[in-house]
Amino acid sequence: MAKLEKTLGYELDTPCITPHYQPAVLVELALSRDVSEYHLLKGTRLQLGDFEQAEERISPDQYLTLIKNCQKLTDADDISFLYGQRLFPGFYGSVSQALQQANNLRQAITILCEYHAILSPLFTPRYYENDDELFLYWVDSTGSIEQHRFIIESYMSAFVSMVAWLAGEKMPWHFEFSYDEPEYVEQYWVNFGQDIRFNQQMNRIRLPRYCLDTPWPNASKFGMQGALKESDKQLSEEYSPYSFLDQIYSYLQSHIDEPLNLDKVSFSFGLSPASMKRKLKKHQTSFQQQLDLVRKHTAIYLYEVKQMNSQEIAEYLCFNDMNNFRRAFKRWTGSSPYHLFAQ
To answer: Residue 112's closest CA among 70, 73, 163?
Structure first.
């Protein structure tokens, strides 16, 4: 198998995020709550002027430290939701112009996913659809485990509030979260409505397909063409359009119907197994965790879209023994295939 030719994507410590985009929005929101500038920026290796000058990029770990400080100092249940409502379309150059001129929800989702390195650098949005629904889900792209919930609340709030503004109406969203119900669940009701489920397999939004192609009132066909061309140029100037974890996920996803192991995948990335282990550990994960994640997501996709049964899913994922598949599935999901797919 040939090695990957492209440069490995951005990592936790790669200076790749424009500080006067999303990070600056968070700084302004925190300062509006009378948070101390010194304590807000403590440990980030940043000064307030860095968010104005826009001369240097910052790394995901600096951004994550900023989020952690903001959470601690504001100590407010609504801060992530308020932050999200300020994010999209945003003032992020041509990509924001493209979002603002989207013709419909399908195009907005495509833009969000294609330009996620600019719009959503910490968690990567991905989507698929079946005959009835669209499924938009987010996957950690930088190892931001400690700030996981804050980021998901922010990104989902950002997307939902943007769509309500551009479409001129609320959509019949269904929300699923991978974590326990928080104590401040009322914030979810206020921002997302009542159709919410916790302790699910993904952080995702579900929506009936009929909503995807309804024209939006402020769409601009000709303006969109120019905005997308400029957005491609903007993306080409980024360190990489993908993170390292994005690339691992995509590689595993495209080869998930083959036998996979650490040595094989490491070779494809031009890395030794030891180097691959170190890079994954830096992002608070491991090869087995990434493989299990992709297998879980693929199993759900095969069930929801291809309507495969457990036996067919097991064979697709290279399990020759159903007992082994059931044990592995229980490890991935905490449930048996029968109980999960019977819901």
So the answer is: 163
Question: Residue 84 pLDDT > 80, yes or no?
Answer: yes
Q: What value does the mean pLDDT of the chain take? A: 94
Instruction: Show the 3-state SS of 257-293.
Output: CCCCCHHHHHHHCCCCHHHHHHHHHHCCCCHHHHHHH
The one-letter amino acid code at 129 reads: E
**SS3 for 141?**
coil
Going edge to edge, which strands form the sheet with 174-176? 123-129, 133-140, 203-208, 174-176, 196-197
> What burial class does residue 297 get, using C-beta atoms within 10 Å of its C-beta: 0-12 exposed, 13-18 middle, 19+ buried?
buried
Is 204 in a helix, a strand, or coil? strand
Q: pLDDT over 90 for what percent of the chain?
A: 89
4 pLDDT band (50/70/90 cuts)? very low
As a whole number of angstroms, the distance between CA 155 and CA 123 comes to 8
Instruction: Report the alpha-carbon angle 187-189-193, nearest 5.
Output: 140
pTM score: 0.94
Residues in the chain: 343
- Helix, strand and coil content of the chain, in percent to the nearest 5, comes to 50, 10, 40
DSSP result, 36-80: -HHHHHTTTT--TTHHHH--S-B-HHHHHHHHHHHHHHH--TTHH
Task: Report in angstroms the alpha-carbon separations of 193 from 58, 174, 189, 235.
Answer: 35, 9, 4, 34
Query: pLDDT band at residue 220, thresholds of 50, 70 and 90?
Result: confident
Pull the structure tokens for residue 71.
């959470």
